[in-house]
Specification:
Chain lengths: 243, 147
């Protein structure tokens, strides 16, 4: 990944600041301990690495955990109910080999949903998380059509009993937020990754793609991985292995 | 003109009239029920809050949504945590802190078509033990615990 001049200067400035700190306190620890009144920066880019070979057929712990964490409810309309994450089954017709993997918003570096949004509601945060600002979303659903991954859902019903960290309401579009409230809190994981690890599958790894020492960066550097529809040149923040 | 002045007084009633004014028109002008359950002062003086709370929430909304700033001083979540009725655990309802006044002033509010009107439980607000343990193990600073 090439670095533009601005990123280079920002990283350089931070590195200089890091050297003046107490010995033992590394820059990354300092950065992750962002206080609640500091803005997010492009020093991080959050992403997921999903190992499809570890994803168990029939297990939907990630889907359940996500929908529990974010209060995504079943409204009894399967055709239109919101899905922030779903399990996809792939079958090789020639060999009969079947595998499953979770799909969600892939948090593109160049998100088509942001390009088409007429109000600026669909946006990418400095740390790479693609979100919908429901305050200014008019529910036109252009982003749903633009997304090549079918990651977004529209809310058709009045919603009550929302979670405190995930406001949801009729007439707006929504999708995976990469558990942005957990990221901002410094949990260092997402509900889906947490649930997958708890189930013992370890198929989902959350981390900082811009930190060369993070587990996700080291695995991406050492092992083969794929972007889904890499031909679109979107540089997804969620990457897959063994598909 | 007199009618206009009376109208302005009625609007000013819940929004900054002095005690003297309030007592002068008590009995003739209905006033909203404002129940304050916690603390002796808000994050800003009462007069400022009555006039400008919507601007503060609007400003904080953009800061949180787009820049990830989650300080609690002007956040809607903290408004609700402090002002929720202890019985209903909500800022809505006939005597709820938000709804009582907004109904009186005939000003609609859209916050609660998406945001929950209920206060967070204390355990949820502070985070569970596992999370703190994770943070300590990962060498991160635990979040500031607010009273």
């Amino acid at each position: 990944m090439s670095m533009n001049r601005r990123d280079f200067l920002a990283a350089g400035g931070a590195a200089v600041a890091g050297t003046a700190l107490l010995p033992g306190l590394k820059l990354i620890e300092l950065a992750q301990a962002r206080s609640p009144d500091e803005a997010v920066t492009s020093l991080h880019r959050w992403g997921l690495l999903i190992d499809a070979s570890q994803c168990a057929t029939g297990c939907d712990a990630c889907v359940t955990a996500c929908h529990e964490e974010n209060g995504v409810t079943d409204e009894g309309n399967p055709a239109t109910d919101a899905q922030w994450i779903r399990k996809v089954t792939l079958k090789d017709k020639q060999t009969g080999f079947v595998q499953t993997l979770p799909m969600m918003c892939l948090h593109c570096e160049h998100p088509p949903c942001v390009d088409v949004c007429p109000t600026g509601a669909s946006f990418k945060r400095a740390d790479g998380i693609v979100l919908v600002d429901k305050h200014i979303c008019i529910g036109c659903r252009y982003c749903m059509m633009a997304c090549p991954y079918k990651a977004r859902s529209f809310i058709h019903e009045n919603i009550t009993d929302q979670k405190h960290n995930a406001p949801r309401g009729k007439g707006t579009v929504e999708s995976c937020t990469l558990c942005v409230h957990k990221v901002d809190r410094g949990d260092g994981t997402t509900a889906c990754a947490e649930a997958c690890t708890k189930e013992g599958h370890q198929a989902i790894l959350f981390g900082d793609l811009k930190d060369p020492n993070s587990e996700i960066s080291m695995r991406l550097a050492a092992q083969p991985s794929k972007q889904i529809r890499a031909d679109l040149g979107l540089n997804t923040g969620v990457r897959y292995q063994n598909i | 003109m007199g009618l206009l002045a009376a109208g302005m007084l009625a609007v000013a009633g819940p929004a900054g009239a002095s005690d003297k004014d309030a007592s002068a028109k008590a009995g003739r002008v209905p006033t909203p029920v404002i129940k304050v359950h916690k603390g002796d002062k808000c994050v800003e003086p009462t007069e400022v809050m009555r006039r400008d709370h919507m601007n503060m929430i609007l400003h904080q909304r953009d800061e949180t949504m787009h820049r990830g700033i989650r300080s609690s001083k002007h956040s809607l979540k903290e408004c609700i945590n402090c002002h929720a009725d202890p019985v209903t655990n909500s800022v809505l309802g006939p005597e709820g802190f938000c709804e009582a006044c907004h109904t009186y002033a005939a000003v609609s509010m859209d916050c609660f078509s998406c945001h929950t009107p209920t206060a967070e439980s204390k355990a949820a607000a502070l985070g569970d033990g596992d999370r703190l343990l994770n943070m300590i193990q990962n060498g991160r600073r635990a979040p500031e615990v607010r009273p």
